[in-house]
Amino acid sequence: MSNQKKTLAWDDLSLSDKEGQNVNDYLSFLSEGKTERESWRIIERYAAAVGFNLLSEARTFASGEKIRLGVRDKAGILAIAGKRPLNEGFRLIAAHIDAPRLDLKPCPLYEEEGLAFFKTHYYGGIKKYQWTALPLALHGVVILENGKKVDVVIGEDEKDPIFTINDLLPHLAKDQYDKKLREAIPGEGLNLLLGHNPAENKGEERVKGAILDILKEKYGMNEEDFASAELEIVPAGKARWAGLDKSFIAGYGQDDRICSFAAWKAIEAIEAPEWTTVVLFADKEEIGSSSNTGMKAYYLENFIGELIALQTGSYNGLLVRRSLANSKALSADVAAAYDPNFAEVMDKRNAAFLGRGIVVCKYTGARGKVESNDANPEFIAEVRRIFNENKISWQIAELGKVDQGGGGTIAQYMAVYGMEVLDCGVGLLSMHAPWEVSSVADFIMLMRGYRAFLLSK
């Protein structure tokens, strides 16, 4: 039931052994999948194991058949054919698997007074001061000059070194204390500390040379290879149960990998649904859904076109557009949970609360609902009915006080096709921080709710 009745998800929760294992699996997913490439790689591995075949190898798309499509190794789509023809519409859950982080600049490596650093450029909305003086890891890929793709992960194994970004000691921080919080750590100050042991070879930048020697030995890299690299700085360490009662999940990237994992679990065991079920994992949401892996690209439309062709024997643009327009979707993204420590930014009557289940948001956007989807009440009523009939705890909320700020999701980019779309996720504490916190009860309800939506008549 909704938060207007102030029911707690815990009161409706009888945790099965399988759902308890799902929490542990989610912790592993968060720990292993710290980039969009890693996250999709894990999901694709899961999907292949339960019969989702590559689109390129498919010859039919009949009821119960499962198909997957990877999008440049950083996004992807899964689909199960329903009993109804695809042009009548499908059920879609769309989440994103990118997360706020620091990226290496194209020419990142430099030496200053015997210390070697990487220069970074932050990705998405972060509080820059949160990224200093904590253990960090380096994840990503490098395409070498010979075309070989090399995976890089440093800082996760206990035998690995970790990285850090220096902060100013409080003894000398008089001027820093006087700055606004957003200015205390400038973007150009987020430089990753690498080393200070100089190479034996002669030269003015011996520490930088030593770092290049290590990269050459370990990955076959030279300095120019940074130009064709995608290297991300993320918090080091594994996601964990949190709280003395183990009622929370703490980890990096829960925005939006908690919804991504729940969407995967929702579709995992579906066999022959009434409607074709589709789960999409997008990239680039945190920077506006741009590029050929973001939701503004046409890979969903192209994917549906391929499925229509498999079902009918030829491509038909009109059927593709009918399919999209007749569909119903959940934009699977997180919401800001009410935090008593920062109550002043919330409208308590319209806030999301931890432990009260799934969070439904009619609209997101900023201030005057700018760049929001603003879902239709008829569709909200339908989702509400699905959740109530399946005993799914849910609540309806918005992001915060009207003039306080705001944020967007990928809902608007699905709505352009004419489909019904509603934002639907869970609340988080410390959203966009290196470590985010979610509720175990809400996560369980999210998996149940997504599955109920995909199976709805």
Automatic annotation (TrEMBL):
GO biological process: proteolysis
A Pfam family that the UniProt record links to this protein: Peptidase_M18
Superkingdom, natural source: Bacteria
Gene Ontology, cellular component aspect: cytoplasm
Keywords, comma-separated and alphabetical: Aminopeptidase, Hydrolase, Metal-binding, Metalloprotease, Protease, Zinc
Record GO terms (molecular function): aminopeptidase activity; metallopeptidase activity; zinc ion binding
InterPro entries: Peptidase_M18, Peptidase_M18_dom2
EC supergroup of this enzyme: hydrolase
EC number of this enzyme: 3.4.11.-
Named cofactor requirement(s): Zn(2+)
Protein family per UniProt: Belongs to the peptidase M18 family.
Protein name: M18 family aminopeptidase
Organism, scientific name: Desulfosporosinus acididurans
